[in-house]
Write a sequence for this structure.
């Protein structure tokens, strides 16, 4: 046994700089935290959270939202960050931790990567819309500012959005998929991919502070800060081994929550102002998604002094929010390629990244046809809603119940140090019971109460809903396929314990002999380091 080799191993293990020479590491912790916050805080914080707050009872929604964040969002977030940092691998290769899928790892992790790919396709279309409004804000008079009849359905701003930007109408809808809107929208989509490489009292968010406790019995929509998309694993995989991923997860989740609440106050301030000006109830003014970001908010900004400046700042904010999330999504895809073909990616990283963006650009052209807004809404409904819920359930089952929750906790302690049993009590309760049961309950409830998606007053046809479900099946079907193939190719009986191979018995014997040799030859204080080195050799 080479004692000098063991000594070198001890020094390397004790070093504070666990650099990954093949993949690289973050240059600083600040870069990592800013990237994580940019990925977690996205467009949904601005246009989805305020509407969910209104739809689920106003201020009362903050109670189930906080509970969901503590019981599902934060445990999943911490789990993904720890997993990526410990393995230093992307969202596909990291699943080598599961012996059942050791040879079919590409088929297991590809589920999350496909979800991220679908999201990347339509997410950049939204960025293109923001770019269009951003350029339109450079005019002295905003194109949508001459709207004198807000209560009217013929409001100029609504026409500006529906007729000029998305260019859809009741007669076109799904039938005009072959017609591209105009030359401007695809060019703006291409530009967005290039970028990816009112009064104190009246403006108070009065509806946000109202509580409707009757809606607390209804489960709110599952919403967590960008978990189960693969981005957290990919970004955390570039951390140094002994980085405190626990504090990072807490900080990013709290920042995401505070940003959502702050955005809710800002959005409902505008809605309250619009309700007052138009002398209508808030329920008739409130919108979500595109109507909120590209209709209601620009209308309010056009009514204040220096409206082009405020409009420019608002859409510039939307652009930055979208780009931050899109950067991390593209990094997820490129990290996946890097783990599969490390030598090729190391030499051709820029061309491969450019090729990924070009491919996604062409795939996104379907979303800028006259029926493009329906495709965007359909992908968002299934992939960004159902997709992350299913992926989160499979993820926690794989790590906690197949890999082993206690084993995973030991891995985390190797990175952040030993923690007390009281510290792990909450995480054990969430990972082993609360989080998986809660996710399964929401999944079952969502299936029971499922209704076809809609966009405004347009109900999706049956084949449109079928396309959405086929998308989910296409993303998830790889997991049972991988398991079945692995079981079929496995040797022995599935229901009998495997007989240890002769080589494994020899390795166990050698390990025991080496451990005894270390105990007799080395000093007692040096034994733990020696045993650790031997175990690593084993």
């Amino acid at each position: 046994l080479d004692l000098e080799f063991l000594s070198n191993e001890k020094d390397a293990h004790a070093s504070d700089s666990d650099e990954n020479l093949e993949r690289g590491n973050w240059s600083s912790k600040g870069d990592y935290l800013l990237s994580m916050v940019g990925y977690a805080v996205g467009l949904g914080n601005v246009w989805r959270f305020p509407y969910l707050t209104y739809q689920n009872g106003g201020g009362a929604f903050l109670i189930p939202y906080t509970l969901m964040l503590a019981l599902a969002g934060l445990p999943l977030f911490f789990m993904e960050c720890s997993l990526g940092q410990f393995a230093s691998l992307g969202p596909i290769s990291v699943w080598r931790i599961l012996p059942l899928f050791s040879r079919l790892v590409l088929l297991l992790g590809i589920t999350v990567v496909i979800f991220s790919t679908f999201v990347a396709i339509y997410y950049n279309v939204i960025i293109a819309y923001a770019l269009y409004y951003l350029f339109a804000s450079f005019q002295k008079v905003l194109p949508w500012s001459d709207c004198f009849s807000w209560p009217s359905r013929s409001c100029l701003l609504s026409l500006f959005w529906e007729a000029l930007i998305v260019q859809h109408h009741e007669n076109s809808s799904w039938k005009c998929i072959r017609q591209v809107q105009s030359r401007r929208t695809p060019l703006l989509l291409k530009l967005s991919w290039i970028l990816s490489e009112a009064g104190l009292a009246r403006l108070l968010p009065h509806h946000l502070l109202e509580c409707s406790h009757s809606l607390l019995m209804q489960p709110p929509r599952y919403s967590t800060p960008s978990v189960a998309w693969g981005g957290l694993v990919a970004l955390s995989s570039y951390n140094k081994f002994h980085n405190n991923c626990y504090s990072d997860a807490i900080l990013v989740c709290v920042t995401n929550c505070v940003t959502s609440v702050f955005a809710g106050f800002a959005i409902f301030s505008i809605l309250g102002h619009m309700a007052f000006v138009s002398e209508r109830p808030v329920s008739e003014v409130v919108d979500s998604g595109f109507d909120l970001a590209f209709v209601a908010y620009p209308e309010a900004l056009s009514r204040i002094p220096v409206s082009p400046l405020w409009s420019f700042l608002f859409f510039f904010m939307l652009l930055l929010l979208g780009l931050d999330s899109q950067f991390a999504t593209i990094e997820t895809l490129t990290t996946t390629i890097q783990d599969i073909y490390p030598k090729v990616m190391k030499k051709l990283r820029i061309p491969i990244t450019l090729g990924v963006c070009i491919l996604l650009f062409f795939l996104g052209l379907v979303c800028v046809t006259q029926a493009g807004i329906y495709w965007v809404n359909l992908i968002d409904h299934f992939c960004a809603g159902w997709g992350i819920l299913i992926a989160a359930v499979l993820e926690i089952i794989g790590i906690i119940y197949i890999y082993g929750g206690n084993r995973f906790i030991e891995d985390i302690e190797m990175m952040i140090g030993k923690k007390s049993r009281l510290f792990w009590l909450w995480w054990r309760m969430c990972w082993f019971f609360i989080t998986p049961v809660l996710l399964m309950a929401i999944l079952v409830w969502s299936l029971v109460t499922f209704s076809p998606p809609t966009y405004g007053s347009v109900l999706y046809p049956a084949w449109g809903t079928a396309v959405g479900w086929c998308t989910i099946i296409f993303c998830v079907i790889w997991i049972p396929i991988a398991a079945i193939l692995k079981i079929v190719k496995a040797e022995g009986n599935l229901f009998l314990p495997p007989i240890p191979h002769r080589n494994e018995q020899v390795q166990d014997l050698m390990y025991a002999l080496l451990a005894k040799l270390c105990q007799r030859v080395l000093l007692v204080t040096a034994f733990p380091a020696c045993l650790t080195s031997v175990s690593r050799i084993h």
The chain has two domains: 30-489, 502-537. Strands lie at 454-455, 458-459.
